[in-house]
Design brief:
Distance between the termini: 30 Å
CATH class: Mainly Alpha
CATH architecture: Up-down Bundle
Helix content: over 70%
Largest sheet: none
Number of helices: 18
CATH superfamily: MFS general substrate transporter like domains
Strand content: under 5%
Order of helices and strands: HHHHHHHHHHHHHHHHHH
Number of strands: 0
Shape: globular
Length: 388
């Protein structure tokens, strides 16, 4: 049974590499703007991988349900590496967008399959902690991107994409060597067995709540770096370092939230409390940014930490209710809902910032547009139905 921690560790490396490429490209926005792109054009490029993730997630989940996680993870990360190498070689914006889109579509495999590994390798008493470790992949990947990408971009955007591609390729090789699919007990008491779990509203409500919570998370992830650099005048290095630290702290909150859920034997109770906390900090960030207060830096940091904290809880709740037969598809739907909403929001918030003049007030207004959504998510979370 010690092998389960090795499998989890290698899967985490793959998630870090994939998420750096999918959600860490916001740290290239200043370089893209310096290269002549507007804020909206740069935003369109950096969300291209997220669009690819949306398109392919459910399909990858169905493949994982049918053929297992090892194959899906290896092929997905290898394909992501190939597409990123393509993005490194093509300077044309349209072709680069297409390569980044394909990188996200291939890399979507890590989101659909890595959660299934935890469902199979870990029992319910450890599953929240294990999923919390797994969910550290996104903030750790984004933290790595915050530290590395701005400096790499000074030598050329192609170099930045090439390094991301290399990380995905190394992860694919390690997963192919180390990971083994868990033995399935498809008639177990976990989840819905062979019946569709979507006959009841439980999973739908978690999907809706998670989609609402991803909006402030994505708003901070995409625009915090540009806010520090272009609105507050920070240098690239210090701004990237600050947000890298917040991502590491955010990874810790995911781990703590998973451990908390194991101890209280509830995924959704802690998730609701975190949703309310996120709403409060987004109100604070919006107000301070619009006022031009220096304290907005602390609010940005706190928001970057808190907004990522509930993801693992939602994933664990979805996987447990879906069961072994449906976990891949259900996690695919979960991620699709989140990414679809996030992708639509980023260009809209870029328009708000630009229309308001692009200074601190514009960023504060954008943050204010999403501050009520975590409170709505808290209402949508089906805590009473969790143990039914």
């Amino acid at each position: 049974m010690r092998r389960r921690w090795l499998v989890l560790s290698v899967g985490l490396l793959g998630l870090i590499a994939g998420c750096a490429s999918q959600y860490g490209l916001a740290y290239l926005i200043p370089a893209l703007r310096a290269d002549g792109h507007s804020l909206q054009e740069a935003t369109t490029l950096v969300i291209a991988p997220v669009v690819g993730v949306i398109v392919a997630l459910i399909a990858w989940g169905a493949v994982a349900d049918r053929f297992g996680e090892r194959l899906v993870l290896t092929l997905g990360l290898a394909g992501e590496a190939a597409a990123l190498y393509g993005a490194a070689e093509v300077p044309d914006p349209v072709l680069r967008w297409l390569c980044l889109f394909l990188s996200g579509a291939s890399g979507a495999a890590i989101h659909a399959a890595s959660g299934r590994l935890i469902l199979g390798w870990f029992g319910s008493a450890e599953r929240g902690l294990a999923m919390g470790i797994r969910q550290m992949g996104q903030p750790l990947g984004v933290a790595g991107a915050a530290v590395v990408l701005p400096s790499l971009a000074r030598a050329g955007l192609g170099l930045a994409f090439g390094v991301l591609a290399g990380a995905c390729l190394v992860s694919a090789v390690l997963i192919g060597i180390v990971v083994r699919d868990p033995v399935r007990q498809l008639g177990s008491a976990d989840g819905a067995g062979g019946r569709s779990p979507y006959r009841a509203p439980y999973l739908w409500r978690i999907h809706v709540a998670s989609a609402l919570l991803i909006i402030p998370q994505f708003a901070v992830a995409v625009f915090a770096f540009d806010y520090l650099v272009n609105a507050l005048g920070w240098a690239l290095g210090p701004a990237g370092l600050l947000l890298a630290v917040t991502q590491l702290a955010g990874a810790g909150t995911r781990l703590a939230a998973g451990y908390w859920s194991d101890r209280v034997r509830s995924r959704l109770g802690p998730m609701r409390r975190l949703a309310v906390s996120i709403g409060a900090v987004m109100v604070l960030l919006a107000v301070l940014a619009m006022l031009g207060s220096a304290a907005s830096v602390a609010a940005v940091a706190l928001a970057a930490v808190l907004t990522v904290s509930p993801n693992g809880l939602a994933f664990t709740a979805v996987a447990e209710r879906a069961g072994p037969r449906w976990a891949g598809r259900a996690l695919g739907v979960q991620n699709t809902f989140q990414n679809l909403v996030a992708t639509a929001v980023a260009p809209a918030l870029a328009f708000v910032i630009t229309a308001a003049g692009g200074a601190g007030f514009g960023y504060g207004l954008a943050f204010g547009c999403v501050m009520a959504l975590p409170f709505l998510a808290a209402v949508a979370i089906p805590t009473r139905a969790e143990h039914s």
